[in-house]
């Protein structure tokens, strides 16, 4: 019928105009995925176009043994972003958690393919947790205490933080709590 319509992004609630940069880099959920992986590699993505990011990633110095796997990560991310776009276009749900899981799984498979002699590749990094008992004491005169907490319903999921400040007589000086959107429990 020769009706021309502006293409809309399937990632955004607002339906921003779909461009290659928006589709693979600047949409909020996509930025979140890139930041998750670029943070681990020590790469900053602010102000970069997609092509600049990929070139920066490929030029990034890494352990020689992992260099080929690291260079494949942008292709893995773009592939999963394309899969999510197509799923959303055809009415299927494809969450950020699933997309992140798929990327990690594909990178895991690349490592196993590149290094077949490695019997077990850790799928996800699991930190060693240390703890010690903390006994609360009133702050000395002239000092204050600040108690904080954050939470995430899911990881990532809807998140918030809160804190309060009291003086040495336990008088409440300030309280703040705020929703910070969808993020991880570590960010919260």
TrEMBL record:
It comes from Solanum pinnatisectum. This is RNase H type-1 domain-containing protein. GO terms for molecular function: nucleic acid binding; RNA-DNA hybrid ribonuclease activity. InterPro entries: RNaseH_domain, RNaseH_sf. Residues 140-188 form the RNase H type-1 domain. It comes from the Eukaryota.
